Amino acid sequence: MVDNKASPVLQVKDLAVAYKIRGGEIEAVQDASFVIKRGEAYGIVGESGCGKSTVAWAVLNFLGANGYVKRGQIKFLGQELTQKSKSELRLLRGDQIAMVYQDPMQALNPSMRLGDQMKEVLTIHRGISDAEAEKRCAKMLERVYMPDPVNVMKRYPHQISGGQQQRVVIGMALLNNPALLIMDEPTTALDVTVEAAVLDLIAELRHEYDTAIMYITHNLGVVARVATRVGVMYAGEMVEQGTVEEIFKNPRHPYTQGLMRCVPKLGANKSESILYPIPGRVPPPGNRPAGCMFAPRCDYADNRCQEEHPALRALDNVNVRCHLAEEIDWRQWTPTEDVIAPPAVIAQAAADQPILEAKSLKTYYPVKGSSLKDVLGLGEKRFVKAVEDATFQIKRGKTLGVVGESGCGKSTLVKTIIGLEDSTGGDVKFLGFDITGNLSTRDEQVIKELQMVFQNPDSTMNPTYTVGQQIARPIRRFKTVPNDQVRAEVVNLLETMRLGANYFDRLPRQLSGGEKQRVGIARALASRPDLILCDEPVSALDVSVQAAVLNLLLEIQQKYDTTLVFIAHDLSVVRFFSDEIAVMYLGQIMEIGPAEAIYAPPYHPYTEALLSAVPVPDPTAKQKHIRLQGNVPSAINPPAGCRFHTRCPRRNLLPNGGKICQTEIPPWREPDDEHKIFCHLPTDTLTTFEPVISKEGNG
Amino acid sequence: MLVKDCMTRHPIIVPATMPVVKAQQIMADNKIRHLPVAGDGKRLLGLVTRQRLSLKTDTLGSLNLWDITRHLSNMTVKNVMLPSTKVQTITPERTIERAARIMADHKIGCLPVMENGGVVTGIITEIDLLNAFQEMLGLPVEGVRVTVRMPNRPGEFSKLMTALGDQNWGVMGIGTYPSPKADGFYDAVLKIRLVAAARVEDILNQIPDQEVIDIRNVA
After folding, report:
1. Pick from A165, A164, A148, A199: nearest CA to A615
2. With left for phi above 0 and alpha for psi between -120 and 50, is residue A385 left, alpha or beta?
3. Do A78 and B135 touch (CB under 8 A)?
4. A87 to chain B: nearest residue by CA?
């Protein structure tokens, strides 16, 4: 192909963006330069607070009343944007530049039908007739793989799922065929399976419409999948730029290298590899160092780095902002001593008695009908079967990982165990005690031994209590230590969390997200429990903080021999962290077994699909392409037979197109002692599945 | 090949209110010769080309120095553009030969590509057509370029194809046209990869009634 179309759509040069604040201003972005060409996806990565989103907003001059572009140029299709008037920009935004943000619900008007919202784009900007607009919107929804588009257009945003909402937003953004599409973490809030479908869609649209895409994310796996070139941002500056292959193969800047070391590779586990969090945190814009921004957190920094600010310079095929880029070989890196590296997990001697045993555990939520019969209580009782027949056990000191799409009952399962939800049937034995009964009758000793860490540390902490008070509460309640030693115990816990005694009197709002989560873990540990249930403890955190929290949990587990139940939607994290893994779908455990067995064939077809959807932070890895069609069916009326049969891509391997899956509940296949798969396909067939991810070159 | 395959999507477009000086600047900066003018919803209003920007001496002759400055600085794109009613356009689903025909007939250098009745989705220029022409004859790939002359009757081309098929040769590009200097004959230009020129000549000359009239290695 003669490449004459690679002319730039967006050129950003030496951009600095400042926000005016009381008594001065802060420069959120100091020096960002990059070019996005037609049909190219440019990924921007970095921790939170590095100015990624500010760059995106600056392009549209969407900076709010106190923000402005201080220096530099933003050229869109040859025209300078920084001097454009509001009305000129408004035209551009609707017509030629479109945006997709993280939370689709904030982009959709909750009081308007989806069809009307979409049509507005065409009828207002293009002056297209209503009927014609309707036709075109339906076609666009079909284009973004929305099932039943005509009906969806009649619904309100709250009536469709998050993944579907995001697809509507993407569809809406593409209606005017924009030259530039800005996507700010568009898939962060979505399930892996939905994320994979959205990323496929983005790649396809890029080829078809030659749209230039600016893709902002903190997930290195996602960047490796969608982007052609990457810019790494740190503290308001571009620190490294290059093609995806180059950056992942040979990161030059110590910050990029640090980011790579924070994420577990899919297939890595805790006994073989260690995560290395980047020490410290991103300096706030008002208080940045004089020399290299990254110097305070860099292992290589010398005097020159402290004093002289490095410029972005070309080195081989990449641009890098580091004085020492030539000398640093990232393969030679060894962790410095102050890095929190947990002792490598030693395989423990034959584990003893299971600490938690669940047998056919069921949790149903009653659904209230709205008919007269239901109101009078005569109607048939209906239930959401959130957890159905969960049978598993956990041995002391081990970790059980639970994975599955949202709505599959992961959280309900742990809530039932801890007693926040009542179970409907089955037994759960914890240390030999039955814990299915009402929470108010539960023995205090049992409550003490069972604690939980929640996903969102913000909403689980009382904002008016100090950190010390919050951690002290369970200690006093359960009388873990005598009253006069409570403070010492809290300080001790804070130190275990690497927070230090000076955090005792701080309020939650004075802490960063990672620190809050550490306080949450400290609070769960305060009663010295035997079992901690962690519901997505790291999914809201930045990669480097996530690595630190995971290391901390590992250390605690080693130190106190704590047992953990760990829920996460990131399959590489679960693989890294867990000894055993349960894969759930629609309330049913589909596959359970040792972590390494789950991630290698034989797979349950659902596990296979999940694994093929995980974004792998390695652009050279080959991944099987399996995408599940449709949504998770309603749990009020789950499919008969195998619950997965409506979406199963492997059903046709069975005789008769898998008719048996629709009618009969599958048997448990046991390829190994501890490994069980809930599927009609015989073990021999399951074993023939190829591994989902393979490295190029070495099979 | 259709227009949508070789047009430039998302061309630079300007509003009608833009000063001509600025439009000229944009064209120079981006090294482009055509600038579609569009209003709300990317609807085509007109087209600015380099020629439209050239000085019209007859208008300027009647003005004095001060008037010229004022005249130039007040001029907007709207004053100089070719209005949309006079602009030749095309749609993405048409063939490129049709685009070439329109451009040749009207002696023009570009066609704005329109969709949905008046929305500019792209632009196709002479350069795009020249690029498409190169691609069709397999230019960027190294190989043997051979021209075969054959009588204008059914079955001749399939003889050539059979000969190629027997050798399992891959054709990178192909074009046929009536022989310019011999009535009743057709010439076919082929680009063949990974073979030696002598071998190609040898094989193709064995086809009855056909003749290799030109053969060369090209990169």
Report:
1. A199
2. beta
3. no
4. B40
Task: Give which of B42, B127, B130 to mutate to test A binding, by max A Cβ within 10 Å.
Answer: B42
Distance CA A113, CA A93 (A): 22
- Residues B41, A127: C-beta atoms closer than 8 Å: yes
Quick check: A482 and A563 in contact, CB under 8 A?
Answer: no
Contact A196, A615 (CB under 8 A): yes
* Nearest CA-CA distance, residue B112 and chain A, Å: 16
Q: Tell me which chain A residue has its CA closest to the CA of residue B27.
A: A78
Selecting from B10, B32, B135 the residue whose C-beta is nearest the C-beta of A210 gives B10
Tell me the whole-structure pTM to 2 decimals: 0.84
Tell me the residue type at A542: D
What is the rounded distance in angstroms from the CA atom of residue A54 to the CA atom of residue A233?
Answer: 11
Residues in chain B closer than 8 A to A210 (CB atoms): 9-10
| Assigned token pair, A72 | 């530099």
Closest CA to B121 of B90, B85, B99: B90
Contact criterion met (CB below 8 Å) for A597 and A675: yes
Percent of chain A with pLDDT over 70: 95
CB contact under 8 A, B9 and A210: yes
Cβ contacts of A411 within 8 Å, gap of 6 or more: A535, A567
Q: Could you tell me which of B105, B10, B58, B196 has the C-alpha nearest to residue A8?
A: B10
CA A52/CA A480 separation, integer angstroms: 45
Contact A599, A565 (CB under 8 A): no
- For residues A582 and A591, the answer to whether their CB atoms sit within 8 Å is yes
Whether ipTM exceeds 0.85: no
The alpha-carbon radius of gyration of chain B (Å, integer) is 24
Tell me the residue type at A535: D
Q: How confident is the model at residue A1 (pLDDT cuts 50, 70, 90)?
A: very low
pLDDT-above-90 percentage for chain A: 18
Pick the closest to residue A467 from A426, A423, A392, A526 (CA basis): A526
What SS3 class is residue A227? coil
Between the CA of residue A304 and those of A257, A298, A313, A323, what are the distances in Å? 20, 13, 16, 8
Q: How far is CA A102 from CA A58, A162, A163, A186, in A?
A: 17, 11, 11, 4
Residue A431 has pLDDT above 60, yes or no: yes
Mark yes or no for CB contact B9/A127 under 8 Å.
no
